[in-house]
Please model this.
Amino acid sequence: MTSTVELTKENFDQTVTDNEFVLIDFWAEWCGPCKQFGPVYEKAAEANPDLVFGKVDTEAQPELAQAFGISSIPTLMIVREQVAVFAQPGALPEAALTDVIGQARKLDMDEVRKAVAEQQAQAGQNGQEGQEGQEGQEGQEGQ
Model:
């Protein structure tokens, strides 16, 4: 009985939406560090039965890896209440993984959402300014 869930493009969104706290291990069969991290991840999953531990095989699910900009594996991502609160490539030792999980549990998600909203608002303002400038240029070209 495995305590991790194989995540695919078919079940990924629902898993992240239906669960408050999801850890995601992006890995591949050919990856040596991924194989070393596997048992550490599995042990953490058994120690934290209230959390969802998912695994994304980047070979079988290239769209998911691409969607999250995964360029090296293993990469661990933690999603709380549909917000990615942690993403780091590299095989974490057991103590570091336990520490990261503890820190993610302690996060004040209201504060996190507020910070994300502020970042998105800033990015939105920057993006709109750029688009308005382009539209003006396109209009002049047509004349």
About this structure: Confidence is low (pLDDT under 50) at residues 130-143. The CA atoms of residues 111 and 117 lie 10 Å apart. Helices lie at 12-18, 32-47, 62-67, 94-106, 109-141.
